[in-house]
Write a structure and sequence with these properties.
Layout lengths: L3 E8 L2 E8 L12 E8 L16 E4 L4 E5 L7 E5 L13 E3 L4 E4 L15 E8 L6 E7 L12 E4 L10 E7 L3 H4 L3 E3 L2 H7 L3 E3 L17 E4 L1 H5 L6 E2 L2 E4 L26 E7 L5 E9 L6 E2 L12 E2 L6 E9 H8 L12 E4 L11 E7 L4 E6 L14 E6 L6 E7 L16 H4 L33 E10 L7 E10 L4 E2 L6 E2 L5 E8 L2 E5 L4 E2 L4 E5 L15 E4 L2 E3 L14 E2 L2 H7 L22 H10 L3 E2 L4
Parallel strand pairs: 3-7, 12-16, 27-35
Antiparallel strand pairs: 1-2, 3-26, 4-5, 5-6, 6-8, 9-10, 10-11, 11-12, 13-14, 14-15, 15-17, 18-19, 19-22, 20-21, 22-23, 24-25, 25-26, 27-31, 28-29, 28-32, 29-30, 32-33, 32-34, 36-37, 38-39
Length: 632
């Protein structure tokens, strides 16, 4: 099965959609990275910790233009520092210093309601989510020396990342997949790739820690849904989809000691510390450190500089490198689809990454990617050697990936009365389960006349796993139809949120705020009650929590339960409606000849269960006489 992305271009004011196989996206090349500069963080102690000898997990906060960073290994405390102006230099003395934190260091690992039952003592990754009313910080953690290899937990949720020291903290939770494979970095999946990869985010980890058999012996990738994480309880695990993974028996390279001196891929000295999807490409970019590729790997031996190793090390002390591994998403999708095993994937490019600053340790400790500005932040362990003899803070380096289109990502949720199950608070994916969803969206006919190719050739397997139906979505600068600037179609899911096969229909050149208009084939269309502002490249609106625009006449939405709003069901013959929407006798006449048909995908199925019965007539009867003056 081929996997598709949808891209959009504009020519003479006409929107043209292209159905693009993922395989036609370019592979990322390391030469495409641009060094933007670097900055330093003060060694000073704030609260219980400092940045000295920090191992490196970091996370960019776009709301404050700041960096969350894990301090000294002993405390594993998190602080937030502002990002000073970057300086493009390879000299430490030229770089600006971030000297005063926004938040001082706060310890978090033992603050879960149930304590820390597995003794997790290292933070492996951070991820910031701008949730409301307060933003959230996800913390992945692991036990440094898990001798019995029995950890199952990994994840905390700091519910208010604006006040880490006093925030409620939920957890611990566990991802499906061994903890030693899923307790490192977390990075977002671009909207256009979420269906293909099976999740909104990726979590990963690798060996490079003690007890190698518990870890992925090579970079891993597991996709998951953000809602599953944020709504997790201590009693369940967060579902994942395996995309890339290596066990000790199925490791990335067999010769971990490099006895052959031909292994330039992965040894006992290798570790990946961050992974992310490069926008506009089909590349999963992982990086960290490696060694022993020139001299091999020894265990508790004496190196050429006279140093006695405490564990694995290269006989030649300088035989270490900052390292990267690049993976083709087509291979990861093949893993998801069951065509190959997770350990059968091989990076299309890998090798030493010679950063502007070189220190003996040569370890990239962590990373964070800002998809709005296409900037990659990484921490270089113990690279700041100018803050005192016994002070070794990391340096923060920043790179840019090639620019992509300045698209605005839609984030829209709504309920439809016909499908809504009030008892369970979802809309069941009955049409998908019955295999009735079409091999193309249904809006390429009057009165919609939308001819985009989203969904073309889809089978049931191509739809999101909780797909309910298609809707048409338009974007306007005023409530009037004449102000429309773009349109697309989307798949509505059980939780009411829309999946956009073409997530690049809007660009920042079209405006900074938009009215959102949603149509369904047998429900009254709805318009956002206000023009929605674009924030951090996102256009977010939730129709489920309040009534929609109604103007001076007619209805907006229906209150399905206290505080729960949805589209009115029963408008099956929308060709007969004038410029707005109307549920009347014409819709009953439209339903009547189909009554008694089963397993059909037609607008007369008002409750969207695939069968046309009296249950649909009841919905029409309840709403008969409802109209909306919102312009089509």
């Amino acid at each position: 099965m081929k996997t598709f992305l949808f891209t959009v271009s504009y020519f003479l004011g006409i929107t043209v959609l292209f159905c693009q196989p993922i395989g036609q996206l370019p592979l990322f090349n390391m030469n495409d990275l641009t060094y933007d500069g670097a900055f330093r963080i003060t060694k000073n102690t704030f609260g219980p910790s400092s940045i000295n000898y920090a191992q490196g997990p970091i996370e960019y906060n776009p709301d404050n233009h700041s960096l969350f960073i894990v301090g000294h290994p002993y405390q594993q405390a998190i602080a937030e520092f502002p990002i000073p102006p970057l300086v493009q230099s390879a000299n430490l003395s030229d770089l600006n210093m971030s000297s005063t934190p926004i938040q001082i260091y706060a310890e978090v690992l033992d603050r879960a309601p149930t304590g820390n039952p597995e003794g997790l003592d290292r933070i492996g990754g951070l991820h910031y989510i701008p949730t409301t009313p307060t933003p959230t910080l996800i913390v992945n953690a692991y036990e440094y020396y898990d001798a019995p290899a029995n950890n199952t937990l990994s994840t905390l949720i700091i519910r208010n990342s604006n006040d880490i020291a006093n925030s409620a903290i939920d957890g611990y939770f566990g991802f499906v997949g061994p903890a030693g494979h899923t307790s490192g970095w977390i990075s977002p999946v671009p909207t256009s790739l979420q269906s293909a990869l099976g999740g909104t985010h990726i979590t990963g980890f690798s060996s490079g820690i003690p007890i190698i058999g518990r870890a992925s012996v090579g970079p891993s990738a597991f996709s998951f849904q953000q809602t599953d994480l944020l709504q997790a309880t201590t009693a369940n695990e967060i579902p994942t989809t395996t995309l890339l993974d290596f066990s000790l028996s199925n490791r990335l390279h067999d010769d971990l000691y490099n006895d052959s001196l031909t292994n330039d891929l992965w040894t006992h000295l290798s570790g990946a510390t961050f992974g992310f999807l490069v926008p506009g490409t089909r590349t999963y970019f992982t990086f960290g450190y490696s060694g022993g590729h020139a001299s091999g790997v020894c265990y508790k031996c004496t190196q050429d500089n006279g140093n006695l190793c405490g564990g694995y090390c290269p006989p030649i002390a300088a035989d270490r490198d900052q390292y990267y591994w690049l993976w083709d998403l087509e291979d990861l999708i093949d893993v998801k689809n069951g065509n190959i095993a997770p350990h059968e994937v091989f990076p299309y490019d890998y090798g030493p990454w010679n950063l502007p600053f070189q220190v003996d340790l040569k370890k990239i400790g962590g990373g964070s990617f800002d998809p709005i500005n296409n900037q990659l932040y990484l921490s270089l362990q113990m690279a700041d050697t100018d803050q005192g003899t016994y002070s070794r803070p990391p340096l923060i380096l920043v790179f840019s990936t090639p620019p992509t289109s300045n698209s605005i990502q839609p984030d829209i949720c709504l309920w439809m009365e016909g499908a809504y199950d009030n008892a369970n608070g979802i809309m069941p994916s009955t049409l998908l389960q019955k295999g009735l969803l079409p091999a193309n969206h249904p809006y390429n006919v009057p009165p919609w006349d939308y001819f985009g190719t989203e969904g073309q050739g889809w089978t049931t397997a191509d739809y999101p796993a909780t797909a309910v139906d298609w809707v048409k979505v338009s974007f306007r600068t005023t409530p009037l139809a004449s102000s429309e600037v773009a349109a697309t179609v989307a798949v509505i899911q059980e939780d009411g949120c829309l999946f956009f096969p073409n997530s690049e229909v809007l660009s920042d050149g079209m405006g900074s705020s938009f009215y959102i208009f949603v149509e369904h084939r047998n429900h009254i269309g709805i318009l956002s009650s206000v023009a929605v502002d674009v924030s951090n490249g996102m256009l977010s609106y939730d129709f489920r929590i309040s009534d929609s625009y109604s103007g001076s006449l007619g209805a907006g939405q229906k209150e399905l339960a206290p505080g729960i709003w949805g589209m009115f069901a029963g408008d099956g013959d929308q060709l007969a409606d004038p410029s707005g929407f109307d549920i009347n006798g014409t819709d009953h006449a439209f339903w009547e000849p189909f009554n008694g048909l089963f397993d059909n995908y037609i607008p007369a199925d008002f409750n969207m269960d695939g069968d046309i019965t009296g249950a649909d007539k009841i919905l029409w009867n309840i709403n008969n006489g409802i109209f909306s003056a919102v312009e089509k």
